[in-house]
Amino acid sequence: MSQKVATFLMFQNGDAEEAMTFYVSLFDDAKVVTLTHYGPGEDGVEGKVKQGLFTLAGQEYMCFDSGPRHGFTFTPSMSLFVTCDTEADLDRLYAALAEGGGELMPLGSYGFSTKFGWVADRFGVSWQLNLP
Question: Which residue range(s) make up the domain with 127?
């Protein structure tokens, strides 16, 4: 038996497709693999993401738009950690992901890497960006 693990992102505001498109635009080797929407009469909001599968830098992620509201959303205690090859790449990703979101740790040198920053993007997903 072969097992596979993927990060699954649940969006509560109908933002799954917008978020997926945004993320794919930021990373190399990134693409939307599959995307299905809720149809008429299905148990979800018609036209919203029933299931999305996308890759960022070769890593698979899944997402969907939740119909029911939940008492929770994304939290910084679970974040996506990105190791960048260049300072320019780190700065570009930090600026794009922070726009409309929030800064959790400003760009700086914290002793464990050359440069590091932590943001929550406009969808609430937390990203740690590191330059070793």
Answer: 79-131
